[in-house]
Amino acid sequence: MKHNIKRLRHYIPWLCVLLCVDAFSAVLLWIADAAAFYSMLTVILTASILLFFAVSCVLLYRSEEKEKAFKDFLNNPDEYNEEKLLRAVSSSQREFIKMLSKRLQENDRNYSVLSEKLNDYEEYVEKWAHETKTPLSLLTLLLDNRRDELPASVSFKLDYIRNRINESIEQILYYARLKGARKDYLFENVDLRVCIEDVTENCKPLLEEKCFQIYYDLSDISVYTDRRAIYFILNQIADNAIKYCKDSPKLYFKLTRQEKYDILSIRDNGIGVKKCDLPYIFEKGFTGYSGESQKKATGMGLYLVDGIAKDLNLSVNVNTEWGKGFEIQFLFPIVKVIEK
């Protein structure tokens, strides 16, 4: 209704013109016959106003029909909607509509081709990542069984290479998952203490090489979330702590329960983030200023963490100060799961 009233305002100048014509006609009528002027004035004004509203209603109706036909055509520029729109527009606009239809249909065809190619590419990348995990698993098995036979320096380097390859593969898979139309998250009760201990154990060679001190303040709390996604998030945060650490590095894990949320806080005493960079740390490819570590950064870790957290319905808070460490908090909504 409001929309029609706004449209009706556009016709008010025409009403003014019509009233001016009526006024001019009334003056002529008054000059010709004053008695007829007084008897016809009301009729003239009433007829003019009724005519104005009748014509306006017809124009509004045709305008709405044209707008609806145009929207249907933009949503689906097929032959049926094209013909429907051509009947609604004037003859001078039909050539333009035909050109627009041809361009839209061509764009739709190009989009379908590109979408198919993109899907094929995503499937190939995902298959490659999964297949690459097989030799990676063999490398892990070899390191676990033959570690005593290898020099400590070689063992550490192989561990480092394995972790970097595994991290890159996981980033590829989760990036594809974020961009894909299908989400395959499996929500269940997850013990965060176990997840944190597994991640720190997996990163143990690098943590020990950097002489990290790990501190745990973890309550026995289970959260309702996706286990694999949480492992990925924790790995990314731990990797960032290792990558941007300073002398005497420390890493703190704290898990507390509040009224509506379980809060997991992960804090380090590394180089932190500059205040000017803080609004952009979750943007894809953003690395900010981090000294020598910037050369190794891809800017994908926190971008993926933030995207996955949104998929899992987690709130993310960051507290940091340049040169004094970095803290990130994940707020897990408390969900009561009814078991059947």
Compressed to H and E, one letter per element, the order equals: HHHHHHEHHEEHEEHEE
Distance between the termini: 50 Å
CATH C-level class of the largest domain: Alpha Beta
Which architecture name of the largest domain does CATH use?
2-Layer Sandwich
Helicity level, as a percent range?
A: 55-70%
Count of DSSP-assigned helices: 10
Lateral arrangement of strands in the main beta sheet: 2-4-5-7-6
The value of Rg in angstroms is 35 Å
CATH level 3 topology of the largest domain = Heat Shock Protein 90
- CATH homologous superfamily identity of the largest domain: Histidine kinase-like ATPase, C-terminal domain
Task: Give me some keywords for this one.
340 residues; alpha+beta; Heat Shock Protein 90; five-stranded mixed β-sheet; two-stranded antiparallel sheet; 10 helices; elongated
